[in-house]
Structure formats: C-alpha cells, structure tokens
Write a structure and sequence with these properties.
The complex is a heterodimer of chains A (835) and B (116).
Chain A lengths: L1 H22 L9 H5 L18 E5 L6 E6 L4 E4 L3 H28 L3 H4 L4 H9 L2 H14 L1 H19 L8 H6 L8 H16 L4 H10 L2 H7 L30 H4 L18 E6 L10 E9 L1 E2 L4 E7 L2 E7 L8 E4 L2 E7 L5 E5 L9 E4 L2 E4 L1 E9 L2 E10 L5 E3 L13 E5 L7 H10 L3 H8 L7 E7 L4 E6 L14 E2 L18 E3 L5 E4 L21 H11 L6 H8 L5 H13 L6 H11 L10 H22 L10 H9 L2 H11 L13 H7 L4 H24 L8 H5 L4 E2 L27 E3 L2 E6 L3 E6 L17 H6 L3 E2 L14 E9 L1
Parallel strand pairs in A: 1-28, 3-7, 6-23, 11-20
Antiparallel strand pairs in A: 2-3, 2-28, 4-5, 4-22, 5-24, 5-25, 7-8, 8-9, 9-10, 10-18, 11-17, 12-13, 14-15, 16-17, 18-19, 19-21, 25-26, 26-27
Helix pairs in contact in A: 3-7, 3-9, 6-9, 13-14, 17-20, 19-21, 19-23
Chain B lengths: L1 H19 L4 H13 L3 H27 L2 H9 L5 H26 L7
Helix pairs in contact in B: 1-2, 1-3, 2-3, 2-5, 3-5, 4-5
Classes of the chains: A alpha+beta (835), B mainly alpha (116).
C-alpha cells in the first residue's frame, strides 16, 4: 500500500514537472502560458494603476548634472537639463521607459532581424531589407554622424540613456510584448539609431515605379504613356508657388544618352515588387497677412502608418541654447517636427525620385564579376548572417556593384519573379547626417540658422514648411538630389554603361525654396515640387495633386484665419475627385431605371462631396470609382505584370476631357501591342465600348451588386451600425505593431480618405496633427492617434485616439526654459541626480 | 485550523519565492509545505490549489482593481475569452492546478511517521 502510494507520488511529481515545463515554454504561436499569466511577474505586472504616480527620484549613472523632468496631464515629459549630453541621455531613458519594445522591433525591421524573434515567417522580409542595403546605408550614415562631434555626443548620450534603462529591467518590468513574444531587449547602439533613420528613409523614398514603368514604356505607344503617366500632372499647384523665380543653376542639365544605350527591355516574366499607394502628408503656413492675430500659423500632418505604439512621442527638451517642443521619433534623439522659442517647422514627403534600378550584366564565365563600361569588375560581397528563431542561421551573400547592391537575382525575387540581376542605387545608401539637421533646427533662432540646419537633411527628402515669430514664412523642397538627364531613373537603366551613372550632386542651396511669397501662404501635400521653370530635371515617385488643389483652394480664399479654421482644414473631408467627376458620371447613368439605381443616384445627386464618417454616398462613390477605374484600365493593363495604374487625378482629367473613352476604344481596336493574345475581347464589348458612357453604367451596376453582397455579408456576421456608412466600410484601424487585434482600435468613426485633406485611410493617415501660431505667445496644438505610453496595460496607451477621431486637439504646454516651473498642468516630477 | 494555516503558508511563501525566483517555484513551495504537513491526498490537493490560487488571485485582483480592467480586458480578447473575469479565473485555475498537483505529490511522498 505504502509502496503503491510512493509510486503514484513519483508519477504525479513527473506530471507536475511536465506541466510546469509545458507552461514555461512557448508552443507554436502560443507564448509560455504559465510565465505569461503569472500575476506576480507575468502580464499582470504590466497592468499599470490608473492613478499611477509617475513622480520619482532617480539616480542615474552617466548623468553629469541634475536634471528635472516635468510630466503634464497628457504624460508629455518636459526635460530640463544643464547640458546637451544630459538632455539627450534623459530623452533616451524616457523613450526606453515608455517605448522600448517598439524601438527594438522597428530597428529589427530596418536591419532585417525580425526572424531572430519571430521565426522563419519573416525570413523573406529580412532578406529583402538586407538586399536593399538597409544595414549598409545605416553603417555609412553612422560614420558621418560619429565624425561630427555634435551628433556624436548627441547619439552617445542617447544610447547611454536607453541602455541605462534596459540595465535596470528584470523580467517583471519588461514591456508586455516581450513576454508575449518570448524575447528580451538587447543593448542599444548608435547603429540602431542610424537604422531607424534609414527605416524612415525607406518608408518615404523606398517606393519607386521604375520597374513597372520600364515595361509600360515598351508596351504602350509613347503618346499614350505620356498621356496616362505624365511626369507632372497638368494644372498642378506646386509646392513652390508658380512664378517663383529660381536662382541661376550652377550646373547644367547633362545630355541624355541615346535610349538604346540607356534603357534595357524586359519580358513580362521578369517582374517583381508590386506597386503600393504612397504615403502622403500636408503642411501649410499662413503669413500674418492672412491670420486674425497677425501672426503666422503653421500646420502639419504627416500621413504615415497608423500604429500602436505610435511612431511619434511628444516631448519638450530644454538645455542651454535649446528649448524645443514637438514630435520626437523614439529611437532617435531630438525633436523631428515641432517648434522652439523662435520658430516652427513641419514636414511632408517630397517624393523626388532618389532610388533607381540598374540592370546588371554578369560575366558568364565568372560569377564574381559583372560588366561595366567594357570591363569586368569584381562584385564587393557583403555576407548577411540572418539568425532565425528555432532554425539554423541563414546566410545570404549580396553582391555590391558600382551602382549599389544587387537586390534581385536568381537567388531572390518577389511575388511575380525577377530572374534578371537588378542593382539599386539609392540616396539612402549614402553617408548622410540627418541627425545634425535635427540638432541645428532644434536650436535655430532665425531663418538663416534654420536653413543652415536643414542643408544637412539629405534623405528622405522633405518639403519643409517654416514660420517664425519675426513673421517670416517659407518652404524648402529639401534633400540631396542628383543632377539627372531627362528621364534618368524613370525606367530601369542599363547598368553596364557609364553614361547611366548618377552624376553630380545638385548643391543643396539651389534646392527649390521660397521665402515670404506674395500670395501670403505656402502649402505642400506631396504634389509636384515646382513648375517647369525650375532648371533641373526630376521625376517623382509619388506626386499627387488632389489634396494640394483643395488646400490651395481653401487657403487662397482665407483671410483673418484662426487656429480653429486650421483645425477645420486639417479635418476637411471634401473630395476634389468626387466634385470633379460625379456631375459627369451622373449624366452617364441617367437611363438606368431600377429602384436601387434610382436610390443611389438620388443619394449621390444630393451629396456635398464630403467623405464624412456617416456618409453613405461617400461609400457608394468610392466603390463606384474603384469599379470604374478597374473597368477602364483592366483591359489596357491586363497582361502587364506589376500593375501600375494612372493616378486618380489623371483619370479624372482624362475623363473630363473624354480622352479616356477614346483611349479605351483605340486600345480595344488594336490588340497587337498589348499582347492580348489568348484574351480576345468579345465583339459585343468592343462595340459597346465605343459608346462613351457604357463603362460608367457598367461600373455603376457593379457597384450596386457589390453593395448588396457587402450588406448581406455584414448583417449575417454581426449586428452593427449601418455598414454602408463610410467609416465602417473603409475601416480606419490604428493597429498594434505586432498586428494583435486585442491591442488595436478598429472601425474608428472618422471620415476622409487618401485624396482628402483629412487623409484617414485604412491603415495610414494623419500621424501627428499640429497647428502652431507664432505670435508673442506661442500657441500650439497637437494630437496623434495613440498615447504617450507604449504599454497596452496603461490608460495612456491609446487615450489620444478619440480626440484624433473627433478632430479635437490638445493645447500643448510649452514651458519657459527655467529651473523652476509653476504650472498647474504639471502632474508628476522626476528629479534626476548623476551617479 | 492546520489546513487553513497551511493554505496561508503556501500563499505567502509562493509570493515571496516568486518575487525573487521564477514563477514555477510555486510548485516547489506547495510540494514542500505539503510534504511537511502531510494531509490525506485529496485534502492535500485542495491545500495546494487553494494556497497558490489564493496567492495568484490576490495579485491578479490587486493589479486588476487598480488598473480598472484595462489589461485584463485586452488579455481576455487576446485569448478569445468573453470577459476579463474569465481571464482572472483562468489565471487562478492554472496557478491552483500547478500548486494542487505539486501538493498532492508531496503528500504521497511523505514518509509515514512510524510512531503513529
């Protein structure tokens, strides 16, 4: 009896050990459950009390003098330090304290090190990051940043601050996502900061249409290509207002080599990299002549991925000669977009093309060499070691050419397949020091100092809007550009001829800019940068015009503007596209008589062209427009890999002039150049296509069908608000970086779309709305779709989101540069002593 | 009374152990306490279950109350549970199960006192 008991006891003990082992280890995608739900150390430890007292006395090794940090009601820290080192040290410490997991993941993503923590499902992503030269570019920039004593001190201190915080952590205090994903933070380095900046450069300049355009150039007659894809959309209202006189250029535009040498040809089977919509942004500045207060007002809302934890983190930094407030980018020191005692600035993406592809001709008999200018050159090999969780290390050798890394070759292609060797030449590979620009801008006291600062900002190129308390306004199309010959880099270039090499750099002072233009305002929204009088040639990788037209329309009629008027404009959902096309389209469908057709025609004819959150007309219009584009372009582009369709604004213009109808008819008449073999168009369609309004009606009926299906699907799944309301149909979601729905906010009741000023798309949108009036008193407002804390268990995790949705702002607390503060908005204080 | 004190003892020792050592030391605590006290097997399971369960319940409630269920609600969604209360229950059950089984094993392995 006793013996049996003992045997059973031992068996039970083994059961306990096995149970504990299972609960302590992740199984598949499931985290280690026991460790995770342990209320002492696991996820429960991340449940931050709602009335948490953030005040603290800290003793931090590496801080030279005492530092004070005041946290306001929104948990925005206001850092007061006695020197530059300490202010960036504390900024690093604070970023780590509130956003550690985020900056870890973002830099892993930049470097192509995601597989290391999530396994081989990220392997393709990691290889792509490495093959496009992210690490190579970051290492180059790091050298430039560390060569300048100012940015060296800034980055060293920042890194020190992050590492000081990491060293203080044990498992219990790790951010929740580390516990869920089962890894731990590693030491921060200056290289990681450089990687993060390249991550932004990739986000903003990484997309280019060169590959798609190369094929289109071969299959479309030149007039049609230019008609559908003009370098600049006609009627653009450029960033630098028309009529601005540009300085005499110091370089002359080089002569283009003959096309036969410059551009290779491709087969349909050679393709990769799908086209995606670009990211957009708005900024504008009104001079005092157009405002009620007489002081300039600057507004900015960069449109980026809507994620939690947010890309941005609000902070105020004070040190001798520095008092700046704004949106910082966790992972990098300083303030990226904001204002200081004297001036304010905002960014939108500039979109001049700074990334080009070259076809590399390998030497057939020697895999270590390629042809260039009649000679055989050696590749420089960069061996990428990719660690993969739970799997052996993967080694990828990337060949570097005179142009840059060979991104695609027989070892790596994307969805459709690219068998050719394509090298990428990209400004983001260069040793640029954007950190120095941030350092100087944050400290600038006037326009000239500001310009001296931004001249160091090379990539990603930005339209930098500016206003100061002296009443000046300005905008610069700022970045490092190459003096290109016409069409250089518009298509994939022949990489074995020296005539296609990137040439001289355009001196940055010659970048397009305007100071105090006569019109009393400047506005940029990713449109073409200049009119045709700008002396250098460039093309865009994402110029769009619709938002710019709308903003210019509103601002040109604005007098005595207040900050409230600016809030209204940032949240404007008026669709220039709908206003420009709907009256024409409605005429086309006059003959449709079904009850549903009547219903939707009625809805649309009463519509005010606003993509409001509750609008059903908006939903119907957008669906109709999608079908219309599809119907118009599907046949033209059906056999074209890597589909690139004309811009909406261009489609609108072609529709207004009836050119698109004519084009469709022509294209359908001659099948030859479009390789439509095997895909003959039924005679009936050909005949009906000849009738100009047929496609409007066809797409309208398709839209009705699709709406019926959508309604049925939705009502079957869940009871909800009318699913045809625009906000519901488009589903703007601020999603957690690891795509965890439980940590995300979906179906936000916000209007707008990519083509309206309030550009709230499904997963992109205004990532930081800021309005700053530079009067005697600086009056500043801001909001971003997130919260100051990156902890999903904190009440500060997503507490700004509702305000952002509602178009409401927080008044930003800008403290004077002083040791002591008396402000009732200050809720918590850190007193930091050096150790 | 002895049983009640045993539950409290396991709860307190578990909390202390977990503060400095990995979470699974709760199993060691329940095992050792049970080995020391030597209840009948069924009762000893209950001893460990209640002891560790009490510890985990207290900590979970403490965190959850001051957090106004922000975290527990998110975790419940993550694990596809209908509400945060159930996430607390799951937490307590898992801890209790580990404690209970360990305690049971402890009772079975206790060498009987020859004088009794």
């Amino acid at each position: 009896m006793f013996f049996m008991k003992r045997i059973f006891g031992i068996v039970l003990l083994v059961v306990v050990v096995v149970l504990v082992y299972v609960l302590d280890h992740p199984i598949g995608a499931m985290p280690a459950i026991g460790r995770l739900i342990d209320p002492v150390n696991g996820c429960w430890a991340n449940a931050e009390p709602v009335n948490e007292d953030f005040s603290a006395n800290l003793k931090l090794k590496g801080v030279a003098n005492n530092v004070t940090v005041w946290f306001d009601e929104q948990l925005v820290p206001h850092v007061h330090a006695a020197n530059a080192h300490d202010v960036y040290f504390i900024e690093g410490y604070i970023h780590a304290c509130f956003r550690l997991w985020q900056i870890d993941m973002e830099t892993r993503a930049a470097a192509g090190r995601v597989s290391e923590v999530v396994g081989d499902k990220a392997l393709k992503f990691d290889r792509k990051q490495r093959r496009k030269g992210m690490g190579y570019g970051a290492e180059n920039s790091l050298r430039a940043m560390e060569a300048d004593p100012r940015t060296k001190e800034m980055m060293d201190a920042y890194t020190e601050g992050i590492n000081n915080y990491i060293a203080s952590l044990n498992y219990r205090h790790l951010p929740l996502e580390y516990k869920l994903m089962g890894f731990a933070p590693e030491k921060w380095t200056n290289l990681k900061t450089a990687l993060l900046l390249k991550y932004m450069a990739d986000d903003l300049t990484g997309k280019t249409d060169d590959i798609a355009m190369s094929y289109l150039r071969d299959v479309l007659p030149k007039e049609e290509l230019d008609l559908l894809f003009p370098d600049k959309v006609p009627g653009s209202s450029p960033v630098i207002p028309k009529g601005t006189v540009f300085e005499k250029p110091s370089l002359s535009v080089p002569v283009a080599p003959p096309d036969s040498i410059a551009f290779p040809h491709f087969k349909a089977a050679d393709f990769g990299e799908r086209h995606e919509d670009g990211k957009g942004s708005n900024n504008w500045v009104l001079s005092g002549s157009r405002t009620a207060s007489g002081a300039p007002i600057l507004c900015n809302d960069p449109h980026l991925g809507l994620n939690l934890p947010s890309l941005w983190y609000e902070i105020q930094l004070q040190a001798p000669g520095l008092n700046v407030y704004g949106a910082s980018l966790p992972g990098t020191p300083g303030v990226i977009i904001g204002f200081n005692d004297s001036l304010t600035w905002g960014f939108t993406n500039n979109y001049r093309d700074v990334k080009d592809y070259y076809l590399i001709k390998p030497v057939a008999e020697n895999r270590n060499k390629y042809w260039f200018s009649g000679k055989q050159l050696d590749y420089t090999k960069r061996v990428e070691h990719i660690l993969v969780k739970g799997k052996p290390e993967v080694i990828d050798t990337v060949n570097y050419t005179i142009h840059g890394p060979v991104m695609y070759d027989e070892h790596f292609s994307e969805s459709i397949g690219m068998k050719e060797n394509l090298a990428v030449c990209w400004m983001a590979h260069r040793a640029t020091n954007e950190m120095l620009a941030i350092y100087l801008m944050n400290r600038a006291g006037n326009y000239n100092q500001f310009v001296d600062g931004i001249l160091n900002f090379q990539c990603p190129a930005q339209n930098m809007a500016y206003a100061d308390r002296a009443g000046n306004i300005a905008v610069w199309g700022q970045g490092q550009f190459v003096n290109k010959w016409k069409d250089q880099g518009k298509y994939v270039m022949n990489g074995s001829d020296s005539s296609t090499l990137w040439g001289q750099l355009i001196p940055m002072r010659e970048n397009p800019h305007v100071l105090n233009p006569a019109q009393g305002y400047v506005a940029s929204a990713n449109q073409s940068v200049t009119d045709d009088t700008y002396p250098y040639w460039y093309n865009g990788s994402g110029f769009v015009e619709l938002r710019a037209w709308r903003i210019n329309q509103v601002l040109s009629g604005t007098q005595k503007a207040t900050v409230e008027d600016m809030f209204k404009l940032q949240n404007d959902t008026y669709s220039w596209l709908a206003a420009g096309t709907l009256p024409l389209l409605l005429k086309d469908i006059d003959s449709l008589k079904s009850p549903l057709a009547k219903k939707y025609r009625g809805l649309l004819s009463e519509w005010d062209y606003r993509l409001g959150a509750a609008s059903e007309s908006a939903t119907f219009f957008q669906i109709w427009w999608n079908f219309l584009s599809k119907d118009k372009y599907e046949k033209i582009f059906s056999n074209i890999p890597n589909q690139l369709w004309p811009l909406q604004e261009r489609t609108m213009q072609l529709l207004q002039t009836d050119k698109l109808y004519k084009l469709n008819i022509e294209l359908w008449d001659q099948t030859k150049p479009y390789e439509l073999s095997g895909d003959h168009i039924p005679a009936e369609i050909l005949i009906r296509a000849g009738e100009p309004h047929y496609l409007s009606r066809k797409s309208f009926e398709e839209a009705i069908d699709s709406i019926k299906k959508f309604e049925r699907k939705i009502s079957a799944f869940r009871k909800t608000d009318n699913p045809l309301k625009w906000y519901y149909a488009k589903n703007t979601t601020v999603s957690h970086l690891a795509k965890i729905p439980a940590f995300s906010y979906d179906h936000l009741k916000i209007g707008g779309w990519g083509n309206t000023v309030n550009a709230a798309k499904s997963d992109h949108g205004p990532s930081w709305r800021m309005v700053v009036q530079m009067g005697k008193e600086i009056e500043a407002y801001g909001v971003y779709p997130g919260g100051q804390s990156g902890n999903p268990g904190s009440k500060y995790y997503g507490n700004f989101i509702q305000n952002w949705v509602d178009g409401k702002y927080f008044k930003l607390l800008f403290l004077p540069n002083a040791d002591k503060q008396e402000n009732k908005s200050i809720k918590y204080v850190w007193t930091v002593k050096g150790g | 009374m002895k049983f009640f004190l045993g539950v409290i003892l396991i709860a307190v020792l578990s909390a202390l152990a977990e503060y400095f050592l990995p979470w699974w030391t709760i199993a060691v605590v329940a095992f050792l306490v049970s080995l020391m006290l030597g209840f009948k097997p069924g009762k000893s399971f209950l001893l460990g279950f209640l002891g560790v369960g009490l510890c985990w319940f207290s900590f979970a409630m403490l965190h959850d109350y001051s957090n106004e269920h922000i975290l527990s609600t998110r975790m419940a969604v993550l694990f596809k549970l209908p509400n945060y209360g159930l996430f607390i229950l799951v937490t307590v059950f898992v801890g209790g199960l580990v404690g209970g089984l360990a305690s049971w094993a402890g009772a079975l392995l206790k060498t009987p006192n020859p004088s009794r």
